[in-house]
């Protein structure tokens, strides 16, 4: 069916750690994406902008292309 091109190489709730790892991958020329899989989309009738939400404890995932996964694991560790 559909081939998944991106794979998760790291998950964290610490945004500073996520930013450091992004900088490392960027310096090595590895394309990456970030995802927040447990981010809520809001509740019906609640109109709170995303910038006002408390992001404490939000899970962040760092994704890379499958062909770059082994190299990314080496850089992260």
How would you summarize what this structure contains?
This protein is 27% helix and 22% strand. It has 77 residues and is α+β, with helices and mostly antiparallel strands. The longest helix is centred in the first third of the chain and has 13 residues, at 15-27.
Q: Report the major sheet.
A: 3 strands, antiparallel
Oligomer: single chain
Radius of gyration, in Å, reads 15 Å
- Main sheet: strand order: 1-3-2
Fraction of residues in H or I helices: 25-40%
Q: Give the overall shape.
A: globular
Mean pLDDT: 81
Low-pLDDT segments, ≥5 res: none
State the end-to-end distance. 33 Å
Structural class assignment = alpha+beta
Helix and strand pattern: EHEEH
Structure annotation, total helices:
2
Number of strands: 3
What fraction of the residues are assigned to beta strands by DSSP?
15-25%
Describe this structure in words.
With 77 residues, this protein is α+β, with helices and mostly antiparallel strands. Helices cover 27% and strands 22% of the residues. The protein has two helices and three strands; from the N terminus they run E-H-E-E-H. The chain has a three-stranded antiparallel sheet with strand order 1-3-2, covered by helices on one side. The longest helix is centred in the first third of the chain and has 13 residues, at 15-27. The radius of gyration is 15 Å and the shape is globular.
């Amino acid at each position: 069916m559909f081939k998944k091109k991106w794979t998760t190489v790291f998950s964290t709730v610490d945004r500073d750690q996520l930013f450091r790892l992004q900088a490392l991958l960027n310096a090595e020329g590895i394309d990456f994406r970030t995802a927040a899989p447990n981010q809520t989309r809001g509740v019906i009738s609640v109109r709170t902008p995303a910038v006002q939400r408390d992001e404490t404890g939000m899970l962040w995932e760092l994704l890379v292309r499958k062909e770059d996964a082994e190299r990314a694991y080496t850089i992260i560790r």
